[in-house]
Amino acid sequence: MQEMDELHRRTQKSTLVLLVGTVVMVLFFVVAVKFSVFLSGTIEGEKLPEITSPVWFNRVPPSAKNVSAPLTAIFFWKEGVGVSEDIFRWAGEWEEKYRQKGLRIVAIAFSSGDDEKDARRIKEIIALRKVKFEIVLDINGVNRKRMRNATYSFIYIIDSYGTITEIGKAQTGKERLERIIFDQLFPES
Length: 189
Prior knowledge:
By secondary structure, this protein is an alpha/beta fold. It has five helices and six strands, in the order αββαβαβαββα. The termini are far apart.
């Protein structure tokens, strides 16, 4: 009898663990679906919204009206975040490699809320890392909202007409993202 009670308790405990695990998986799935629905509202195929900020380093702000380069790559950057730092590093390599071919790179830096401190830090990073591409401080997340950006792992590719032709993710990998850039710079290849 005691063995039966113990077996019954273990069965109840296992059932409870399975039930909790199932609920957690369902909640995870619901969140993932909601997030992907949010992301599907991205602006691929639309004109680039105007990017604005009083704190802009290394050039003039691009917009759908004044994108002068044959191809512009815009990404959101937050210092110290792995995927964001990966794109920052790759962008420096791509800028060096494809600048003469017409690639323009713009990093939109997340603001911590202390704009003066952020601006000083960006200046330090530009000097330390010898950054040549543009960096804009996204005060109050204005540009992030305009571009319907949910994360700093996205990179937006904009053609010479100011249209967002592709949205890549850092998780796609450096080689694949570079191939997207290369294919749009050299469509005949």
